Batch of 4 targets.
Target 1
Amino acid sequence: MADQTQQADVVIDRGKWEWSELYKKEDWWAIWLGFAILLAGLAIFLPRPPADMHEKLASAEAIMAHEAAQAPFNTIEWYTANDAKSGLRARNEPYAKTIGNWLQRPGRWSTNPMESLYLSEEAAAERRAKAEPAYKEAQEATKMALATAREAQDAAAAAEFQNEELNEQADTAIREWRQAREKERGSLRAQATVQAYNKIPYLIGIGIMIMLFFSIGTKFMGISPIRFMQGFWFIFLLAVVAEIIGNQTTMRAYGFGSLIWAILGGMLISNTIGIPRFLMSALQTEYFIKTGLVLLGAEILFGKILAIGQAGIFVAWVVTPTVLILTYIFGQRVLKMESKTLNITVSADMCVCGVSAAIATAAACRAKKEELTIAVGMSMLFTAIMMIALPTFIVAVGMHPVLGGAWIGGTIDSTGAVVAAGAFLGEVGMFVAATVKMIQNIMIGMIAFGVAVYWCARVDCAPGQQVSKMEIWYRFPKFVLGFIAASIVFSSLLAYMGSVGDVMIDQGVLRGFSRLCRDWFFILAFASIGLSSNFREMAHHFKGGKPVILYVCGQSLNLLLTLVMAYIMFFLVFPGVTEKLMF
């Protein structure tokens, strides 16, 4: 009994709060740096709106409201006004484009990798010449589709929109026009209007800025800023190489993006020549990614969640914890996995949102670095497979785009991969997929807190031992607080500012600044994960293939439950949501 009391006292002493944690721990530095970027973005963008923004927004909204009252479908005039409204983007302003140039990453290329960094005037002209015929053909197709849509709409209007058959024909023709327009304004337009560039000076500049930015906290965390800077350049160079490889058009099309190559490149180095000593102080995986996750929180906007409503919430918030718990139990009782921390980290990685959830869960249960690497590596591999296989299957069987989008959003791990996969289903499918994934991303904080509580109360504590509230606080990954705070603050800002917020916050601060920073932080984190990975240390975790079996079985359950729940919610319980999304 005395021993148990002594152990409990250790827990209480270890959980004592010290104010010095606010400037000594990487979780808090991730919050401070993340909010520094967000505040800087607000200071840069908010005072510099596009010219006549309020007048243009008011005009577009008036037209959209008038057209919505006239016809039972979105008319050509409605879409034209909506295009004018959505075309107002703070990130398109000259000062924002300058910022974008400095934060840009290597571009896409097909046969010559140097084109991701440098494109001469001659090469740009050659690209434009090659793309021009297809682009002009797409423009003509858009004009013809618009003419057909106009004719169908006029016929419906002549019947005062009382003829359902004419209304349906007009709606179909207008949708075909929108599809032709999206094709015209996609990659064809980008290639037909490409200009010469030299990204090398900007990459050097952003490398210096990120290095100095993160070195601010290293001194307070007990890391030598000089040694951090010495090793940072190697990690940054590896990240740039991974970006170049991942932006090859074929690689990108099949889902093998830069993050995968950052991990593989780092693993290749660490498991062959080994990690040079000068790199050790710069391998700050969690410092990089936690700062990026705070920025991600600002992109989780409640307004977009409300657009999907209760149906999306049920899909994301009921299936996710159910699959997490069942997968963890399966790993312990059926697979008999020795490491509980690996079990829960893989489970969270697979059913919530991949890397972000894995980082938060690993911090809450104190998983080993190699266990986190295993979870992240499997997530990236299966994400690359699913982002191609799942939409291909959905299209092949003719699944409804709302159902297919919800299925993709609830099962594919990476947010970027969800958007890419959802795009195969059209605008509606992509919107539903991205929104369901955003709703699911909110679970990061809840899952981390739940794991911290469970690990303190049931896993790490001896029988009969009491767990103090401070111990739970001690285990809880503090950066999640920054994630939640950023989500609340920016959701509130957008709700207060309305359409102006879409222009200045969503299409300015977030997409024109913080997201660009976040992408850099993530690729640096993945390069660090690869460099920190050692196959020998990870080998015993793969004994019997248990992590892979766990991931495959858990994802299979996730696919089944998400599909069933999405069908029930969107088509049986809340069918009005589906009708609203389609029309």
Target 2
Amino acid sequence: MYKTAFLFFFSILFFACGGEGENNSSNVERKVFHYIQHRSVTSLDPAFAKSQANIWAIDHLYNGLVQLDDGLNIQPSIAKSWTISEDGLTYTFNLRDDVFFHDNEVFPNKKGRKVVAEDFVFSFERVWKGSINSPGGWIFNGRVAEENPFQVVDNQTFVVKLAKPFRPMLGILTMQYCSVVPKEAVEKYGTDFRKNPVGTGPFKFKRWLENQSLFLTKNINYFEKENGQALPYLDGVRVSFVGDRKTAYLELIAGKTDFMSGLESSFVNELLSSEGELLSKQAEKLTFLKSPFLNSEYLGMRFNGEANNPLTNKKIRQALNYGFDREKMLRTMRNKVGKPANSGFTPIGLPSFSADKAKGYNFNPDKARQLLSEAGFPNGKNLPTIELLSTKDYEDLCTFIARQWEDIGVKVQIELEESATLREKMKNGQAPFFRGSWIADYPDAESFLTVFYGKNPAPPNYTQFKNAKFDALYEKALNENDDVKRYDLYQQMDNILIEEAPVVFLFYDETAWFVKKGITGLSKNAINLLSLKRVKK
């Protein structure tokens, strides 16, 4: 109670102070958007934009060359236009000349300077091969030319050279790792740049109380406009870090926060019906926004396991996929937030997704029993108990599936692990059967299909799946610039995964956003990005 009261008082005091160029009149109500994050921000440096909490905060503070709209289409940002050479190796970006870094003491007269092409060379090289060991270096590794991949033609022309064609490259450049940062600030603050961010985004940094709150204020010099009106509309943003989701839910219901993302079994039935509709008692206070989220949930099966591991038998893997009811699982366990994974590993929301061209598994217990019999285990007779590794968060889901498998004769023992321990076992090949999920790094099916490319280690290939035909299709897709042809290759790969069943396909995730009434301009998107530049309160 004391902590909540303190933060509320602090936020009022904080935003009442205003800032340069801001309207400080006590008669003007400040439009501050307040949201709660389940996990704390660990860095405000784009080079460390790995977690959702970091990505959301960094998106408020920075921009890159390009950005995604709500339909996952690539749109201009700091780059007003671009061209790609016929051989797919050279990307030339023409930069806007009206984008400025936030005002900061690192600049002459503390006034933010104009962004130029050299800033992108510095920012990209820092992520790629910088001494900071950015977790984002992989986005360039093996993709950009080894020598001088980032080049300046003039102040407003920036070039990226690839080692080989890679069609999803523009999508990768929308990632927050690719945000532009000023060399002056990085050199002045060193490792403390993580808490002294200087970007170009719609909001600028004010204060960060680590593990408690983050405060941002409006960037009055922001370059983007909507219908001729300068963005953003909000005066500021306040983020509170609350680890207990139930506490976040209570704050939302009490009207103390404007937004909450995600669900938990302890309160889901207080918000949603079993059909996934917002309950009438909440509808006067809240709006519920649900949309496809590029995340595939699955149970993975390691392929090079022990000889006596029953999961090395394809018919058993297929039987498990037929042996449980995905629709009922989502209805009873997730209040219909999510869609059954009936079409392979690539989720709904991607342009290449096709339920018609990649037909996966439905609930068919008779077919499951038939496959078990063909595998030599009629009704599960003599089939050893299978151990499934999971975390506490997914215990109920795994228990539901295991009980349905009992009906076809398959016995499963669920072993709970800490998240870090489970990831380590998955990485080291010590998890023959495990609960996993894969979230898109960029909006292209390649981001999902790379999980099964035979030449990839774990991660991402935790199942250690190897299939020569799959690998050939994957490599062909990387060099295919025609979207229609590339999507056909993706669908062929998904059909191989359906046939070979290296995973039990569970569901395609959906976002679950709860927004206080009176908030407008908050749009849904399949990458679960909280963009606030067009929000009004």
Target 3
Amino acid sequence: MSSRTELTFCRICEATCGLRATIEEGRVVAIEPDRDHVVTKGYSCIKGLRYHEIHHSPDRLRVPLKRVGDRFEEISWEKALEEIGAKVRQLVNEHGGDSVSAYLGNPISFSLLPPVLIAAFLQGLGSRNLFQTGSQDCNNKFAAAERLYGFPFIQPFADIDRSQCLIIVGSNPAVSRSSFMQLPDPIRRLRAIEGRGGKVFNVNPRRTETAKQLGTQVFIRPDTDIYFLLSFLHEVFVRDAVARERVSRHMKGLETLRTVAEAWPAERSAEVTGIPAETLRSMVDAYLEADGAAIFLSTGVNQGSHGTLAFWIQETINAVTGNLDRLGGTIVGHGFIEDFPKQARKGGHTMRKDLSRIGQLPSVADTFPAGLMADEILTPGEGQVRALFCLSGNPLLTVPNSNGRLEKALQSLELLVVIDIFRNETANHAHYILPGSSALQRPDLPFVFQSLMGVQPVPYVQFTDALLPLEDQQRDETMILLQLARACGSTLFGSRVASGFFNAWSSLGDLPGIGRRVGLTPERLLGLMARAFRVGSLRGLRKSPHGRLLAPHKGDDFLGRRVVTDDGLVDLAPDEFVVAARELENAFEAERAQRGKLKLISKRETHSHNSWMHNFPRFVEGKRSTNYLYMNPEDGGRVGVESGAMVEVRSSVASVRLPVQLTDEMMVGAVALPHGWGHQAADGLTVASQTSGVNVNLLAADGPDELEYFSGMAKLNGIWVEVVAV
């Protein structure tokens, strides 16, 4: 039996852990961590180590499918592209480019080329309507960064390997591996902070898997993080702990920011956060006394009512205390392209200033909120969405209020094209389903966040070849998007030069004798990008199969040099944010008035990842075949239930039923429900469809009035709910 071992890296999350795959007779039979990887050093989570079993699932899509009546039939690629192209051309001619839209999902977002090309495809049609998962989990950070630093992809991150104090708010690195920061082996690296005498605080409504292993637990009532952060900033000003020389040279708006914080002493925020004033002040003590400190918030805060304001205040705390742009504090990476933010801002890339047709919400990083998809499809008028290309996503499960208006909207589309590896809930409504590739079938460089944002505490680069060939009629998403662009008449990036280049290069592949040697392939495109990134050729990168370390961070190289606002100064008090902060009084009073009501948060699970990992038998066997509502025993006593009992969770939008688990991991007044479940209607997922979990996002509201204005994000955390025994 022939057997070989190949090195690659995982593309499930930002951690991109190094892996070793054992391949026998064309199948990956085992995956283990790459112990010689330059950064991950033998670490990987269970999801990455089992990815091959997802790849080899008998449910994988292998041929293009077309809906005929109430069933799907096989169709050739040539015919599918021809029919899709004809319909798109018709819609664009009759209704304009905005009649065509796309949704970019996960996990394809963790590969380099497809996210770039789906945007280029829409731009070439004259469409603004790109929706993506960021409006479910992270757009607040883009919206805030654009106003503070001049560009959405400038994202400071904690210099975790030198920090002396880290305050983690609404994040659980032990399971998520963090976000907007490449953090493999998080527990070892967080423990190292304590090992060198530093402190770690976990601010969360739940005692997370991270908090169980290290740090100090600080319970906070869901969706009150903005008040905690404002009080933290208030304490910084009260103690006159401002790095005045640094702030005066590189920042503006300090005095306005001071007036924003004045109204929020620790005693006041304690009324709604549940964090005693003395506890908050002890955290400020630790932060200010540390030789390098950072506050870091993530998804749990992002998905609340005030995610953008919370990220703004976090950044200002790190900035005014002198921790921004210093080793041990927060670092701004360089990425692979020198001065990328400056160049991109100058070219207007990801800097659109337009508003959505429905609700007049601002675009964020050139995308519109997924929470508006149903409205954009169902509301007649100029610019109404009539076609949707869904790339590696499942909005019918991940977008709020999806089983109601969004399902109706998808059914009303004149064209729905799904590009995926499985026929999921969204694909069941498609007119065409195109079979894509798994990560094991794609060559790749680190994804956009690492290559362009440089969110790596330890900078490095790595290339992976495809480990396995495409099967049957599967195609790499890069080639699918290029072929769709040609069929639909899209001038990629809105540039005839770019489209002509790709079309000419594609045509070389048809030349007899030399086509295979010079034709357009994803690997050759990545080779061009590697050279553009100045990380060398693919041949050179292959000589470093465990990754190649890049220049380490130096600190003190962002302020005064790479801030790209008009005046080159960090804006500590953007006018829009200041106005919004002064309007928090009504929200604060609503919190005070409903302190006795339960609030719901989402939860990430060790053996799950968003909506696409429940089709693997080992991950959903036994007690893991459903999700549970996690509740403090004191709250359970009030409801009159014990662990295992069925409960109904009711929000203002909908209700779901599922079993409850009582645990003191939850603070009193907060309940948690893992997301990504609810596959009962997905007959294309033979394992997942047999699970009994429920979709937490059904409890969240969609529509323009329910989304946070600055980011367009749905409120998926901090939902007021009622729990009753069934």
Target 4
Amino acid sequence: MSDLPQPRISDLARADGPPPSYLDGLNTEQRRAVEATEGPVLVLAGAGTGKTRVLTTRLAHILATGRARPWELLAVTFTNKAAREMRHRITAIIGPQAEGLRWLGTFHSVAAQILRRNAELVGLKSSYTIIDVDDQERLIKQLLAAENIDAKRWPPKQLAGLIDHWKNRGWTPDKLPPAEGAHFANNRGGALYAMYQDRLRVLNACDFGDLLLHNISIFTGHPDVLAEYHDRFRYILVDEYQDTNVAQYLWLRLLAQKRQNVCCVGDDDQSIYGWRGAEVDNILRFERDFPGAEVIRLERNYRSTEHILAAASGLIAANKGRLGKTLWTDDKGGEKVQVRGVWDGEAESRLIAEEIERAHKDGRHYVDMAILVRASFQMRAFEERFVLLQIPYTVIGGPRFFERAEIRDAHAYLRLVQSPDDDLAFERIVNVPKRGIGDTSVAKLLQVARANGVSATLAARGIVGTDEITARTRTALSTFLRDLDRWRSLRDSMPHARLLETILEESGYTDALRLDKGPTSQTRLENLKELVQSMGAFDTLEAYLEHVSLVMDLDRGAGDDAVQIMTLHGAKGLEFPLVFLPGWEEGVFPSQRSIDEKGEKGLEEERRLAYVGITRAREVARVSFAANRQVYGRWTSQLPSRFVDELPLASVEAASETGYYGGGPGMQETRSRWDDQPEFGSTYSSPGWKRAQNRGFTPRDARTVIEGEGKLVATSDPTSAGAFKRGDRVFHQKFGQGKVTAVEGNKLTVAFDHAGEKKVIDTFIQPA
């Protein structure tokens, strides 16, 4: 393939002629990113800086100036939606010529095209099929059975997840580190991986991870094929480079190594997908991978106000692993980021719901408001509050809380315990988790029930004494029925929340989720724990199930104008005029699990997630945290997130007229300014703060002072040390009256009259 003559910039945009119209409106940095076509370029595109316009205009510029023909451009994105949007915009700029962009798509769609042309080099035919997750797990199950490996002890889904992880790291079976293979079936993971790949070749199939992995094998094993693609692709462009995994990185390096006309666009401060294999180091080492690379920073933000950007920039500055940039805007001023402390999670949902109602009455549409949570279990309190107040809402990126599969399963167990004749509940959970009661046996059982006009439970009791089903199935069904009888016997003597915990444990449901190494298993466990703790608000199981039925009945489609609820991960790329960021507490956000698993690296990713959350807001951002939260069924005293302290004081307002007040942001500076500049105390002029001061509190003494539900709370009070001793009668706003049984510093053990023994901080109680 012969090279096209390369036109000069002076020939394309002569001094006596105007620049092409598609360059109109670009700021200086954006235009640099568009016109820097030769050699490696890294575009650090901050949130809201016009990244998509730069991407599409750059491609259009290369085509319009004759540097390449459409089929000589490689442009890869992460989603089909992004690829379609890019193609649409390029067409709008240069017309039908854009139709020739054959190599514009996702990493995997482009890799699939390359593999289709070279399949025989990795032992496949060009007619290969791509199997889905269900087929992948079915194939692994067959392999486990052939190797006499217990699929209950070593679930197929777990090995599928490991294989996907290995492929994302670019490891073929022969290159898999021995330590990695040890993670499954007593050091047999590597051998099973090799068997799995061999079986795929026999079936002329590959899975999703193979698309890139086979490409890498082809390029490294066949230099002539790689040279062909070096000649084919004159310019390479990659979107969201901070989200690439190792396999994507290796694939790109191989394709770009000759011409090095590669432009990667991304934001190291928005790398938040480490849990699914993304490596922020890929973007951080771009200049080492491509010496002489030009780095262009897009820092002018067109989305958010000055205070929102300053708050986000001040927060992310605490990260060490970043290339560095500072967002700015011509939209000066605006509302400061509000930080509010509340009494507990229910008070938080009530506060936000009231503010949403107030904003709607003031003319703001519901769809302009979003609640961004760290974990999906946080959604329940908001969903129930919105249903109660008839505020329309929608959950983005997943089902509503009560519609989640694990929640429906738990409710089915409870319904069947409550009503043995609930055939729908029986059918849902008779083989969940897997008990060896297959679909054929269930269908036969339901047929017997209908024929005899009895419930499925009663039909099951009869069929276990016959030969209608296999001996193995009869045993599994008999065990299930005995479990149901035992749980029913506990219904009247055990609190219903504890009953659900017992059912989930004894049925094997929670164990199945713990063994599942998939990306959603931990989230599903957290949702179940949130469900258990929420049941405590109801006196009886009947009352709770009735509540659920009413919620599900009222929980209808909200239409177009609805409050958006989603996780912070799901919010990336979106923007809203008004954003609520609840649950900013240590252990919740940043996630303790993330820190435990990844240490400082995990903490920095959590901080990037906070940065993403704040920069979703165009006009108003409101952060909140609770002094108490019921986590996994236990009331705990919460500390505000360290991210609250890292917000710059100049762009944060730590109080609001709602009656909920917090002293978290920039606390060290706040404490000193309180003493040095008394007028600053006006920020803390609420009745709650007044009463706090009357009791001797100052910001030096209390990290957080909160007035919520008419209760004064402080998370620390040095003056109270030693104020209580064993035997004292005390009163707690949540747990009522009790007696102190042990004292350890400011931590007390109290035997409450009705709530049982609890550990509490002394500042949360008062003498009875």
